[in-house]
Each structure stands twice: as structure tokens, then as C-alpha cells.
Amino acid sequence: MKESEKIKFIQEEVLTAAEAGELLGVTRQRLSTLVTSGKLKPVKKVGTVALFLLGHVQALKKELEAGRKKYRPYD
């Protein structure tokens, strides 16, 4: 894989914790709970910085949205 392909992959497929939280529509605290519980696993964690794959976040988003529809039908 060429360096330019790697950079493009990272730019398109890797999310920071802030980006993942925004995509999921959750707070930083809730995102931390999802990581601690194992529902969302960072691909790399350095200190307080965590990186996530877009595909994993999108899959979790579908799961969370289904749970919201089931348990919060008034929203």
C-alpha cells in the first residue's frame, strides 16, 4: 500500500473520540462508558487519545438507534 493510500484511508476511515461521539450523538461520558463496557473498541489508544474505525462506529450507531426506538418511543 502506497503512503498516499494509507493517508487517504486514515483520513476517511479513522475517527477521533470527538468525531465518534458526534456521529453517535452521545456525550464524551457516554462514549467512555461504551468503550469501558466493550461495546466500542478503539483501534489505538495513546494516553487519553482514542481512535476508532468508521465501520465500527456506524455499526454501533445502528444498534443504539434501534435501542432508542425500542426503549424511548416518545422521542
How would you explain this protein's 3D organization?
The protein has four helices and three strands. With 75 residues, the protein is an alpha+beta fold. It has one domain (3-71): Multidrug-efflux Transporter Regulator, Chain: A, Domain 2, CATH 1.10.1660. A three-stranded antiparallel sheet has the order 1-3-2. Strand 2 (44-46) and strand 3 (49-53) form a beta hairpin. The chain is elongated, with a radius of gyration of 14 Å. The chain starts with a helix and ends with a helix.
Notable features of this structure?
75 residues, alpha+beta, Multidrug-efflux Transporter Regulator, Chain: A, Domain 2, 3-stranded antiparallel beta sheet, 4 helices, 3 strands, 15% strand
Summarize the structure.
It holds the Pfam family HTH_17. With 75 residues, the protein is an alpha+beta fold. It has helices spanning 3-13, 17-24, 28-37, 54-71, and strands spanning 14-16, 44-46, 49-53.
